[in-house]
From TrEMBL:
Highest taxon of source: Bacteria
Record-given protein name: p-hydroxybenzoate 3-monooxygenase
Domain FAD-binding: from-to ranges: 6-341
Organism field: Kitasatospora cineracea
GO molecular function: FAD binding; oxidoreductase activity
Amino acid sequence: MTPRTTTVAVVGAGPAGLVLAHGLRRAGVEVAVHERLSRAELEATARAGVLEHRVVEHLRALGLADRLTAEGERHGRCEISCLGERVVVDYGALSGGVRHWVYPQQSLVRDLIAAYERDGGTIAFGSPVESVAPDGDGAVLLRTAAGGLRARYAVGCEGAHGVVAAAFPDGAAGPQRRYPYDWLTVLARIDRPVAAVRYAVHADGFAGMMPRTADVGRFYLEVPAGERVEDWAAGRIRAELVRRLDLGGGDPRPGELLETGVLRMRGRVAGRFRHGRLLLAGDAAHTVTPSGAKGLNSAVADAADLVGALLADLRGAGGAGDALDGYQQRRLEAAWRTQEFSDRLLELLHLPAGLPPEQREFALRLRLERIHRIARPGPEGAEFARAYAGAGELPVAGVWPPAQRTAVASRSTGR
Ligand code: PHB
């Protein structure tokens, strides 16, 4: 059977794949999007929910944030508890007005799919790409259950261990770290909304309470690496959350547990995000722990940059390959900045592995000191606040999107 042809094959319809496909299609580039999951599965997968300022500004400029900004909430404060103190970090004020948006990732994905389809795009759901290989003339051949697809470029946006990365000569290997603990993840009904992200630095391990919607919250509990979720009954999870987070009368309480799991805590950055016309974006290029809520944000940022780089490459601007190498260089640097931010926050939120009980208070005091430092106005507070909330603009390649950029400036003072 003769393979279908397209210009850019996008593997994975998560936030990275959808933002990329959208940008390319809008610029008149032919795109084929393949997604392993069915549409219902994809739109029901609960994940992140905290979006950086600059990511939302970018989505706004593309007309992709209407529902997000109508239904999402702005958050500019988080709380970090340690040794019985609850310290408010008013990062909105410390950063000079930069705040997050809280909006569930699956809602954003649903909006992006709807927008893509409104523009006339189609997505092949339930259609995994089985393999990716070079096909002469620099083209790429993708094999799917529905037959072959010949593309000029293939972009892996399908998460870690994807087929596009597997087609790199070294499998897109790169430095990685397995942390000595895991996070039990819980999606739970709550009796009142989570007003601010709450981190608990606790002698028995970190706990977190994060906003999602008015009646659902995301909770985390540090557990030993390799822990099995089956060993945590609902009652034990709830009791441990209440204890470590010191949930009192005015706080939300986890009720029915809608979803539980264990997140293996690791960081990883592929050594290369590009091999010829094979490209990686989002989790396919790097894995960041949830600490700091950077995964979804950096996935959108990769895609936003890659749109401009691919357009430049297609137009032959600056000589073959330059634009795509530029993408790789900028996003590798960004990935390491993100890892460093996430890792530094992890260090604050966890006690060193194997610390004997009699030394824990000392370690907690050091952490409380640092919490106070980032909560205080001054250079350290401002630096943390700006990095945390994603100040500034996404550093996107080239001039894309040209017209909308001006529109952002005039609208960014709004809600
Ligand atoms: C989350 O919303 O899941 C979240 C938010 C902030 C973090 C980590 C996780 O630092």
